[in-house]
Task: structure prediction
Amino acid sequence: MNRFSHSFGLTNGLALLIALGAQVLSAQASFAQTPVSVADPETYELGRYTYSGHGSVNTHWIETPTSVIVIDTQRDTLHAAEALAAVKTLGKPVRAIFVTHGHPDHYTGLEQFREEWPDTDIYASAETIRVIETDHYGYHQVVRELAPEAAPGTFVVPNKVIEPDSTLSIDGVTIVTREMGPSEATSATALYLPATGDLYTGDTVLNGMHGFFLEEGSDEVLSTVDAHRVLFPDAVTIHPGHGNPGPAEDLLAAHAAYTVDARGRVARAIAEGLDPEAIVSRVEEELFAAYPDHTVPGGQPNMVELSVRGLVSELSEKPIVQRAVTDGESQ
Result:
């Protein structure tokens, strides 16, 4: 069995415990681990297609002796075609496709995969299906405008609803699913393989990428990081939506530390009385300088700017004491 094993010297995120305060306790009270036993040895190999540079996103797969299970299908038709070609080299049919959340960089390629395997079931949560079906964010038009030559003819809607807190068995692979609630998107589905401790997080955890805080909020991001620890205490490797797979706790700590740091920079600027545009300009520049090796996960060229705007909006509405706590914990 092929196993991802990466060692990254990532920043410790212990400051998260203080920054979250009561939110950590709330997350622990809201999420509970459900033990899952795997009766028989499971045989599968794990693979991934990605590319380097701006906006890189992962398509993951689980290869069984007779079929393939795909997780997320790329941001545009050009990269989806490459992901599809990589999966086809395995010489096995795709038995199932999972969409982790409702951002089009994870489902734009569904049309191409469906054309290749028309009878394959596509799984997503009810919330993710709603977001795709209604174009909740209005991103379908954005995709068509940013890269009209790489936009799909149709944004395919998944046909199989993942019920909350399900345990699925697909071609001999046990997959534990948990709805993580709002975080980077309105909701996200975590997929866990208890036989090997592999956890697919979608964009609730990133690796070596700038965070995205425009739509929901950094509070939700931090609470979701902690929920992963509660729900999946035996997770060994996280396979994020963007960035390399790596040791679970390292990726969780690093993503939380980045989020707390970005919050603190915005909170300090708010406390200094800077106007919103000045805050956005300063913090965007600071983040690029502080994380020179980080790339941008989204297709929008101004994604870090948009994230800082989200933080300004979020933290400007919070009590001054809460802002001060976050400010003090982020250096």
The CA atoms of residues 55 and 297 lie 4 Å apart.
